[in-house]
Design a protein that fits this description.
By secondary structure, this protein is mainly beta. The chain is about 5% helix and about 50% strand. The chain is built from four helices and 49 strands. The strands form eleven sheets. Strands 24-25-26-27-28-29-30 form a seven-stranded antiparallel sheet, with no helix packed on it. A six-stranded antiparallel sheet has the order 15-49-46-45-44-43. Strands 3-2-1-14-13 form a five-stranded antiparallel sheet, covered by helices on one side.
Length: about 550
């Protein structure tokens, strides 16, 4: 099976800390779901709802063999499944849990612990099958609840039934849950769906990388495409080992030892050899390079021709943003800010600094977090135990441990109290704030829960997850009826109709996707047609 591209979802944070007292009571809900499969057919049901499957259930050595993808996506539609056909290995991200399956060794590892295996896994017709009995062990290790009594085999009907109780924490009340609505519009393609590639990566800046892995892991073929689907350069299988986009139309080619060899342009023309230990991405015409001097790492900046513009004189160098870059001084190990000539515009005196956003940089001193402007002036004095970047003129801050979270403006004035409850971890983006906390359940077990807020106050978990997954205002979702992916906006309104087997985030107005259809190059190679979508039809037609 060829490698497809999966939607990348945010991983859950592993947190520790004190147990909070929530304003709303938590309670544990054991919600049972019944899964039913009929041997000799592709029919697999969750609570009597037929699930998407193209793999036939069968018996082997007295065990019912269920397809991995069908079962996991029925348990959790957001399950991320990865397959290495060459090594016969599969990886699964199921919520906060990780599952690794090694077919050749007949080994299963769940959350880094090897589990006993009943029967033998096998690959059949390009699908990985697992003996049913092993699902009990796997799911129990992932936080679900089932026993031997929850597995039932009806030999007369050739039907197997599994009852799985899912742990759910109910801590939200009367919070509006978004409803996916509308049918959306047909996608507008910059590159039509094609079986030429095993996957297409959206590199940003209007560049795409078409990959064909038919010849094997070390013999990929690469095509660099522009946003119109025009071929900019082609590399035959094995011509180069690996390629990485560095931004601003520059690409880095790697040796077989994973060393950066040289930098080329979109047309495949070498610009310069990498004369340093490493080179980073280009931003505003400059890229940070790293080397070793007198036994320690030093960093500086080169231009698009590889010419050293800022000498290797820093312990660390960040990327340029708004004509400024955050660096760590080699002598003091403190952070400051430089201009494009390498001169300090903010002296290195901070424990940490972040790149400028909205004209502000988040800095840290012994007194806490605060903000400086591009001139180095402390517009909001360091005072917070946690703070976010500014987005559209506001930021989230925490004044004291276990205190409330506030929304502030660029003057440091409090705009709104977001949450009273303390958290173990805080995270935000342009759309919302997430506060994570360990909660003690009635059973005595601990469970990580998240509370979500937009700038108007607390929102539902479902709405929060949607907002955190937005890319350029759109989020890929799995349509339960069709079992295909489409794109919705932040309100849950379907914008692009669900018709994809795989879909990736939008970047610079484009997203790569793979269709449900397949064609076969060989008996063992499944090819998912991939293409590139434009974000808005109106953009093409000049209506915006």
């Amino acid at each position: 099976m060829k490698k497809g591209f999966c939607i990348l979802l945010s991983s859950a944070l592993l947190l520790t800390g004190t147990v909070p007292t929530w304003a709303k009571e938590e309670r544990l809900l054991l919600e049972p779901h019944e899964y039913r499969g009929i041997v000799g057919t592709t029919n697999f049901y969750r609570d009597d709802v037929l699930q998407s499957s193209d793999a036939e259930i069968y018996l082997k050595d007295g065990y019912v063999m269920l397809p991995l993808r069908t079962f996991f996506t029925s348990i959790n539609p957001d399950a991320q499944i990865y397959w290495n056909g060459a090594d016969q290995q599969a990886g699964v991200l199921l919520g906060e849990s990780s599952i690794f399956l090694y077919v050749k060794e007949n080994k299963i590892v769940v959350n880094r612990e090897e589990q006993p295996v009943v029967g033998k896994m096998e690959v059949k017709n390009g699908r990985l099958f697992i003996p049913l009995r092993n699902w009990l062990t796997i799911l129990n290790q992932c936080g679900y609840q089932l026993t031997d009594a929850d597995l039932h085999w009806d030999s007369t009907k050739q039907e197997v039934t599994v009852t799985v109780r899912e742990n759910q924490i109910i801590f939200e009340e009367n919070l509006k849950t978004p409803v996916i609505s509308g049918e959306g519009q047909a996608p507008l393609y910059a590159v039509a769906l094609t079986a030429t590639y095993s996957g297409i990566q959206n590199l940003g800046d209007g560049y795409f990388l078409g990959i064909d892995d038919t010849e094997g892991y070390y013999k990929y073929a690469y095509d660099i495409l522009d946003s119109n689907g025009k071929l900019k350069s082609h590399f035959a299988p094995g011509e180069i080992f690996r390629m990485e986009y560095l931004g601003e139309g520059m690409f880095c080619v790697y040796t077989e030892r994973w060393q950066q060899e040289y930098v080329m342009d979109e047309n495949g023309q070498k610009q310069f050899d990498v004369a340093y230990d490493s080179i980073g991405d280009f931003h505003e015409g400059l890229a940070c390079v790293s080397d070793e001097k007198d036994g320690q790492k030093v960093e500086g900046y080169v231009d698009a021709k590889g010419t050293l513009q800022i000498p290797l004189q820093f312990a660390d160098g960040g990327y340029f943003s708004e004509e400024r870059a955050v660096v760590r001084d080699l002598e003091t190990r403190k952070c400051g800010v430089i201009d494009k000539k390498g001169n300090y515009v903010v002296e290195p005196k901070y424990k940490s600094c972040k790149s400028f956003q909205d004209g502000m940089s988040l800095v840290q001193t012994e007194q806490g977090y605060g903000y400086i402007n591009k001139q180095g002036e402390e517009v909001i004095a360091p005072q917070y135990v946690w703070a976010s970047d500014f987005y559209d003129g506001t930021a989230y801050v925490l004044e004291e441990q276990n205190g409330p979270v506030w929304l502030i403006n660029t003057k440091g004035e409090k705009v709104k109290k977001m949450a009273d409850q303390p958290g173990d971890s805080y995270e935000s983006n342009a759309y919302c704030l997430r506060i994570s906390q360990d909660v003690v359940l009635p059973s005595g077990a601990e469970k990580n829960v998240d509370h979500y807020y937009d700038k108007n106050g607390e929102i539902s978990m479902e709405q929060g997850k949607l907002l955190f997954r937005l890319s350029e205002g759109l989020c890929s979702v799995l349509d339960e009826k069709t079992q295909k992916y489409g794109f919705v906006d932040k309100t849950g309104e379907m914008v692009i109709s669900p018709m994809f087997r795989e879909a990736r985030d939008f970047k610079d107005g484009y997203a790569s996707a793979g269709s449900m259809g397949r064609c076969e190059k060989s008996a063992f190679a499944e090819i998912i047609p991939h293409g590139i979508m434009k974000k808005k039809r109106q953009m093409e037609e000049g209506e915006m």
